[in-house]
């Protein structure tokens, strides 16, 4: 391909030289045009007319510098014929080519598109370039280059391969950062960073001050679902979102849900004396204990006397005895050798000189007491003595059964009376039966009396 182009260039140069010679010899160009081929005629005619223009300018005393409008190649021929025209000796029989021919070196020097006699191919005109859309083909000697149609914009420069490259202002020194700032290159620009470095969780403002970063305002929430972000200096904390619990509810240990408050299990009982606290979802209610009823006047629970109200279930042979919060059904059964005297007493039958009978107590009397567990101690609960005391009487009082735990003791008041004292508190409801013996010393004889003391300890009000 290169050889073909080189040969073609030599032919074109030869046709041009013939045209110049014809102009110098004939002083005209038209008579020779029809004798040659189209390719030869084109180059012959062009160089012939260009030479005639140069010769005319020389004859008319005009400048030998060609008008740019006639083209670069024509200008070379114009100037050569103008400058050398006056020195040409033209004969009608044998014109000499070398007198009007432009040398190869001169043409190569004047024409940048000629190289060693070979003319450059303009790929941009022939369409053999490979420039893409948005690029312009620029012909070069022996080749071409593609140039971008648009500029790269501020902060970028165009490279030889028509690419936009970022300008590193920090490296080139074209930034305007103050001395106590550091230049940091960015795509298409740069920024000035203070030399002072902030701790984690802080960022520098334009003045170089370290200010807190509010991580909670970030689009990427730092806390997991179900927690709220609380910003702190240089950091943040995540706190579980606490649901708002209504009255009667509180958060569970995990803080995830509301659970019922058991008001009845607290040390501060919300209900008054005699009441039972019953828990309910989010609330509670106070009810009177079994055996009590609510008094609207005092607004307290009072004991129901089942014996008076006849709401007991005692049999016909039993006696109803009311206690706090309940009742007891009591029956009086006198032991052998005794007879019933009233509802609470058993009298000894006559002994008829029977020594064993005479040693038995004269009387057995039944008593009933009821008090709560919170009764203060020590306290006197029972008094015993002869119904008709006489001077010289003396008694001896003792508890002969039912006091295994030592809750009670006896105390002498005087020679003819004594008392039973509760010396230890009973902490829970229970029924007790004390057998108390009183020995009466009168006029040299000793008589024994028994008191059967039923004690019913009820729950604290």
UniProtKB/TrEMBL annotation:
Family, similarity comment: Belongs to the fibulin family.
PROSITE patterns given in the database record: ANAPHYLATOXIN_1 (PS01177), ANAPHYLATOXIN_2 (PS01178), ASX_HYDROXYL (PS00010), EGF_2 (PS01186), EGF_3 (PS50026), EGF_CA (PS01187)
SUPFAM superfamilies with a match to the protein in the record: EGF/Laminin (SSF57196), Growth factor receptor domain (SSF57184)
EGF-like domain residues: 260-302
Species assigned in the record: Amazona aestiva (Blue-fronted Amazon parrot)
Keyword Protease: no
Keywords: Calcium, Disulfide bond, EGF-like domain, Extracellular matrix, Glycoprotein, Repeat, Secreted, Signal
Classification of source organism: Eukaryota, Metazoa, Chordata, Craniata, Vertebrata
Name of the protein in its database record: Fibulin-1
Subcellular location: Secreted, Extracellular space, Extracellular matrix
A Gene Ontology cellular-component term: extracellular region
Entry GO MF terms: calcium ion binding
Ranges in a coiled coil: none
Residue intervals of the Anaphylatoxin-like domain: 50-82
Signal peptide (residue range): none
Taxonomy, superkingdom: Eukaryota
InterPro entries with a match to the protein in the record: Anaphylatoxin/fibulin, EGF, EGF-like_Ca-bd_dom, EGF-type_Asp/Asn_hydroxyl_site, EGF_Ca-bd_CS, Fibulin_C, Growth_fac_rcpt_cys_sf, Nephronectin_domain
UniProt KW Secreted keyword: yes
């Amino acid at each position: 391909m290169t050889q073909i182009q080189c040969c073609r260039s030599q032919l074109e140069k030869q046709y041009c030289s013939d045209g110049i010679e014809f102009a110098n010899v004939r002083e005209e160009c038209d008579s020779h045009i029809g004798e040659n081929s189209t390719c030869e005629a084109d180059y012959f005619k062009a160089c012939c007319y260009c030479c005639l223009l140069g010769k005319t300018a020389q004859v008319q005393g005009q400048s030998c510098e060609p008008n740019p409008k006639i083209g670069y190649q024509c200008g070379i021929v114009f100037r050569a014929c103008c400058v050398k025209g006056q020195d040409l000796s033209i004969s009608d029989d044998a014109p000499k080519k070398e007198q009007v021919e432009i040398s190869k070196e001169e043409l190569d020097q004047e024409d940048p598109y000629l190289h060693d006699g070979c003319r450059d191919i303009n790929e941009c005109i022939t369409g053999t370039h490979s420039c893409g859309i948005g690029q312009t083909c620029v012909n070069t000697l022996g080749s071409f280059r593609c140039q971008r149609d648009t500029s790269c914009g501020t902060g970028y420069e165009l490279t030889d391969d028509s690419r936009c490259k970022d300008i590193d202002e920090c490296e080139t020194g074209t930034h305007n950062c103050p001395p106590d700032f550091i230049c940091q290159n960015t795509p298409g620009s740069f920024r000035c960073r203070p030399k002072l470095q902030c701790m984690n969780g802080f960022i520098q403002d334009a003045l170089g001050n370290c200010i807190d970063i509010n991580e909670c305002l970030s689009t990427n929430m730092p806390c997991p679902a179900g927690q709220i972000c609380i910003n702190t200096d240089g950091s943040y904390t995540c706190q579980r979102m606490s649901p708002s619990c209504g009255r009667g509810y509180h958060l569970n240990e995990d803080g995830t849900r509301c659970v019922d408050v058991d008001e009845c299990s607290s040390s501060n009982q919300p209900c008054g004396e005699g009441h039972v606290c019953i828990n309910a979802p989010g609330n509670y209610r106070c009810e009177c204990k079994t055996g009590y009823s609510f008094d609207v006047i005092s607004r307290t629970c009072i004991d129901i006397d089942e014996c008076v109200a006849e709401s007991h279930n005692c049999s016909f042979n039993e006696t109803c005895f009311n206690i706090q919060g309940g009742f007891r059904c009591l029956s009086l059964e006198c032991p052998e050798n005794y007879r019933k005297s009233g509802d609470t007493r058993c009298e000894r039958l006559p002994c008829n000189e029977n020594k064993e009978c005479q040693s038995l107590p004269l009387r057995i009397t039944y008593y009933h007491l009821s008090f709560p567990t919170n009764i203060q101690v020590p306290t006197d609960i029972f008094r015993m003595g002869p119904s008709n005391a006489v001077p010289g009487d003396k008694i001896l009082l003792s508890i002969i059964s039912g006091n295994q735990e030592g809750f009670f003791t006896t105390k002498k008041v005087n020679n003819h009376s004594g008392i039973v004292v509760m010396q230890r508190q009973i902490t829970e409801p229970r029924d007790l039966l004390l057998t108390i013996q009183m020995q009466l010393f009168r006029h040299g004889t000793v008589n024994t009396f028994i008191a059967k003391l039923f004690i019913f300890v009820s729950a604290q009000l």
